[in-house]
Amino acid sequence: MFLSFRDEVRTVLTDALSAQGYETADLGIEEPPADVDAVLASSVAFRLAGEAGASPPQVAAELVEAIDLGDCEYVDLVENRGPYVNFLPSEAYFAGTLESAQGDDFGRLPDRGESVVVEHTSANPTGPVHVGRARNPIVGDAVANVLDFAGYDVERHYYVNDAGRQMAVFTWAYETFDEADLPAPERDRVEYDLVRYYRRGNEFLEEADPEAVEEAEGEIREILQGLEEGDEATYERIGMVVDRVLSGMRECLERLPAEFDEFVKETRFIRDGATEDVARRLRETEYAFLEEGAWQLDLSEWGFDKDLVFLRSDGTSLYTTRDLAHHEWKFANYDRAVTVLGEDHRLQAEQLDRALRILGNDTDELSQVFYGWVNLPDGGSMSTRRGTGVNLDDLLDEAIARAREEVESRLDTRIRDDDLSPADIDRIAHQVGIGAVRYDIVSKQPQKAITFEWDRALDFEAQSAPYVQYVHARACGIVDEATAAGIEPALDVSRLVTEEERDLLRVVARFPGAIDRAAADLEPHRIATYTREFAETFNAFYRECSVLNAEDDDVAAARLALVAAARNTVANALAVLGVSAPTSM
């Protein structure tokens, strides 16, 4: 109903402005403060005051007089409050909300007929996923989820760097060193086993005598050259290492969960000739020049201080060259492309965009979501191991353990009388623990670096995942108890007249709009913000509006329908964030 309401507001406001002779491009439509009964408001009077020669409140009052609501179904009243034009809902708005939200797919927008590829994570397959980069799969998965919920045909891709120097070093090290040369693995999984070779290889290249290092570097160069020349044996050597490491990394990511439709390898664009074609076309542009045997692009015209190297002096391509081919493949196969990147890759992304334009591509449908680093507070049991950093597995293990402690400490104070078995406690600990990590990370604006803090993330009483998850569990409990008592839900909005009931209906109605805006701005943290407001509103309703002890059967039935609507809303909002919605806590 919210989106239909917004469409009506746009229509009547545009018509009124046009009739008054005003420009209609900027309507200034926004959501009003919480203490205003309106669903939407317009600040357009501020923009028009100078042109009208009147104060904003005067302009707003004139617009209210000019607005015709005759054809509106969901907008019931328009009024000015100072300089703002406020639009208030009809009973049809509330009735439509109550009915629509009974569906399990409430909030999912109609199919837009537009495909989007979301590339995220894409960590080099050199070992376990590090906590510092954990924001990428969490934010990336949420971006993909919100686009999917907003009606786009979404594919989730992981771009595998299997053609760079790191993988050549990894392959050489795996083939060179023996198990006896290595420390014990930190965890019994394949990427923890193999990363020992990579670390040992880098230590050797840093510390061995120069002659031994030069010999090793020669072998590494041969691997890189073999890739560029299409040598199948070289592809197999690297592929064996990459695929095994990647399989372990996927197990870690599935714990979040962050799943992918396709793992797209860099070598694909070497083998099919696309990288060579890109390099040829770049050489033919007016911006290409040769310096010390390496081909580069002069991007100074666009304010870049550094030139972009796209072919080394030995003729091998770079990551950026292959990524250019990768992006041209995206443009050929999808309507839009979204990439989730660390803030430290911003310059690289800007250079990539300019090079794509030089190659003749329209990059307007290419978007990047940048994120800052995730830090852990000093101290505690999450300390760094042998200087290798804290792994995502460690964070998730501790999250589950801490969540289990919190759940067990609350068993004696639970309101519901259902008994939780050890398996139930284990399930809830996983849902709450991993949900706490995901929610805490995705709820922040991604550009800012954040410090993950356990007490905040696992606080059942504050604005956290457990706080919102508990609302879903509470709603499920109410539905179960009411159903057992023989109460049947009724879509009778006329029985929902208290302030708390109407507030809850209002916040339920806004969910599709929150999805629409989060998808448009590629900002899934907006959904987390929405869930916090939702949880506060639901809890106010819960305190004041009993279903089982309602004043009469009709009110109980209407409230039960409202609780079901709330349950569906919060379940879907959490699903967009990638957070489980427990039915019991």
Overall geometric form: flat
How far apart the termini lie comes to 32 Å
β-strand amount: 5-15%
Low-pLDDT segments:
379-388
Order of strands, widest sheet: 7-6-5-11-12
- Mind describing the biggest β-sheet? 5 strands, parallel
CA gyration radius, whole angstroms: 28 Å
Features of the shown structure:
585 residues, alpha/beta, four-stranded antiparallel sheet
Architecture overview:
- The two termini are 32 Å apart.
- Helix 6 (165-176) crosses helix 8 (210-228), helix 12 (319-333) packs across helix 13 and helix 18 packs parallel to helix 21.
- The strands form four sheets. The protein has a five-stranded parallel sheet, sandwiched between helices.
- With 585 residues, it is of the alpha/beta class.
- Helix content is 53%, strand content 11%.
- It is flat, with a radius of gyration of 28 Å.
- It has helices spanning 2-19, 44-52, 56-66, 91-100, 135-149, 165-176, 190-207, 210-228, 232-254, 267-271, 274-283, 319-333, 346-358, 392-409, 422-442, 454-457, 465-484, 499-509, 511-521, 525-544, 553-577, and strands at residues 29-30, 40-42, 75-81, 84-89, 115-119, 153-160, 262-265, 288-291, 294-297, 308-311, 336-342, 366-371, 374-375, 450-451.
- It has 21 helices and 14 strands.
- A hairpin with a 2-residue loop joins strand 3 and strand 4.
- Residues 379-388 have low confidence and may be disordered.
The gist of it:
The chain has 585 residues and is an alpha/beta fold. 53% of the residues lie in helices and 11% in strands. The protein has helices at 2-19, 44-52, 56-66, 91-100, 135-149, 165-176, 190-207, 210-228, 232-254, 267-271, 274-283, 319-333, 346-358, 392-409, 422-442, 454-457, 465-484, 499-509, 511-521, 525-544, 553-577; strands spanning 29-30, 40-42, 75-81, 84-89, 115-119, 153-160, 262-265, 288-291, 294-297, 308-311, 336-342, 366-371, 374-375, 450-451.
